[in-house]
Fold this sequence. Notes:
Elements: H1 3-8, E1 23-27, E2 32-36, E3 42-47, E4 53-60, E5 74-75, H2 77-91
Antiparallel strand pairs: 1-2, 2-3, 3-4, 4-5
Amino acid sequence: MVYRGKISKYFHHCPLCGIEGSVTYGTGVGYIDLSCSNCGAKWNAFIDVLLTFQWAKLTKPSSDGKGSELIGKEYHPEFWEEMASERLKESGPYCSSCGTRLPPKAAFCPSCGQKVKK
């Protein structure tokens, strides 16, 4: 799945909840289905015949309603990448291994024991 590398650069973290590695990939007709296993958000991503990631469109907001105003609009990949970056700043630190929110000054994840990256 060549498209995965193209998309994961921009969807490494969910743009709506900020959890790393939570966005999963599926195939649709003429596009790639993306969904967040953490917040339930869903997108359609379009990759052209030259394998260039052109846009992603939110089709379902997160379970808490984040992104409702973005439903059905096509945004460039950089838009989603920037949103994910902002969400990370707002939400505080999460474990890069399991996605658990980390307590302040944690050296290890309380859920999986992964050493916290500083």
